[in-house]
Design brief:
The chain folds into two domains: 61 residues; 31 residues. The chain is built from four helices and no strands. It is flat. The N and C termini lie far apart (75 Å).
Length: 119
């Protein structure tokens, strides 16, 4: 009985994913044909071409993350910094904090300076 449950679940998930992908492709096709043909004067695309555009944009801009792609893209840097932080002495930590405070001051004004237009 459990085997049938999992088979139904896999088939249902596959059908749901296909429906979602089809809907997304249809939306891309309608937007492309409705907007870009008028504004940029490109040729209209078919449903299959819209699927291709979605796959291509996923490859170029999204990558493949998750279980097969090694997790979140920023985790490697984040884990490396956590390890470095835990291996520092309290003096080294304070020095690093001060360095980052100095770097951040170039991006924003400190709280004790009046802001432009405030009197």
């Amino acid at each position: 009985m459990k085997k049938h449950f999992w088979i139904k679940k896999i088939i249902g998930f596959t059908a749901l994913a296909a429906a979602f992908g089809s809907l997304l492709s249809y939306v891309v096709m309608r937007l492309w044909n409705g907007i870009l043909t008028e504004v940029v004067h490109v040729s209209p695309i078919s449903f299959v071409q819209a699927i291709g555009i979605l796959v291509l944009s996923k490859i170029l801009f999204g990558g493949f993350h998750g279980r097969w792609g090694g997790g979140c893209p920023g985790n490697h840097w984040k884990n490396k910094m956590k390890e470095k932080w835990h291996n520092m002495s309290p003096e080294e930590r304070e020095k690093m904090k001060e360095e980052w405070r100095n770097k951040c001051r170039t991006w924003r004004k400190p709280n004790n300076e009046p802001q432009a237009g405030a009197e």
